[in-house]
């Protein structure tokens, strides 16, 4: 994961970390900012990992990682919504059939995932399975960093 120059968000995160005023919600908000081109700093990644490592054993078991996987699904759905809106805006006055199909397909997938808790949970399980590259049922720090990078790059699924 490439480190970027510090941002105002990073500075406020560091203050929150030093003073004990941070929470998972703020860390997850930074993950979303990472998806928008403001990559997480290594300290933020470490704090996020630690916040999910409930039993403090240095790895995330499936039960510990699933809230993160569910949040990843939410972030992916948000990006899909944004992409759908951008595609709709970019349609010309006389769109080609392929453009209309592309928008319709994205809309169909988004609708299916948004309406079905079962589909979202299935997607969260798939994210965990993909992230668990050594298939031992838990995520170590390297796997965790990799899944965050893939989420930020939009290559997780």
Automatic annotation (TrEMBL):
Residues 40-75, 119-154 form the EF-hand domain. The keyword Calcium applies. PROSITE patterns: EF_HAND_1, EF_HAND_2. Keywords: Calcium. SUPFAM superfamilies: EF-hand. This is EF-hand domain-containing protein. It comes from Paratrimastix pyriformis. The lineage of its organism: Eukaryota, Metamonada, Preaxostyla, Paratrimastigidae, Paratrimastix.
């Amino acid at each position: 994961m490439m480190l970027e120059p510090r941002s105002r968000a990073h500075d406020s995160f560091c203050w929150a970390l030093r003073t004990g005023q941070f929470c998972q919600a703020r860390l997850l908000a930074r993950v979303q900012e990472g998806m928008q081109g403001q990559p997480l700093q290594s300290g933020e990644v470490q704090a996020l990992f630690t916040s999910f490592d409930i039993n403090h054993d240095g790895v995330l078991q499936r039960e510990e990682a699933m809230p993160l996987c569910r949040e990843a699904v939410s972030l992916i759905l948000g990006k899909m919504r944004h992409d759908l809106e951008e595609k709709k805006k970019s349609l010309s006055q006389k769109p080609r059939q392929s453009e209309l199909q592309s928008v319709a397909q994205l809309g169909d997938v988004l609708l299916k995932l948004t309406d079905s808790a079962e589909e979202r949970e299935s997607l969260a399980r798939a994210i965990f399975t993909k992230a668990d590259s050594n298939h031992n049922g838990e995520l170590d720090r390297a796997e965790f960093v990799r899944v965050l990078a893939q989420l930020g790059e939009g290559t997780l699924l």
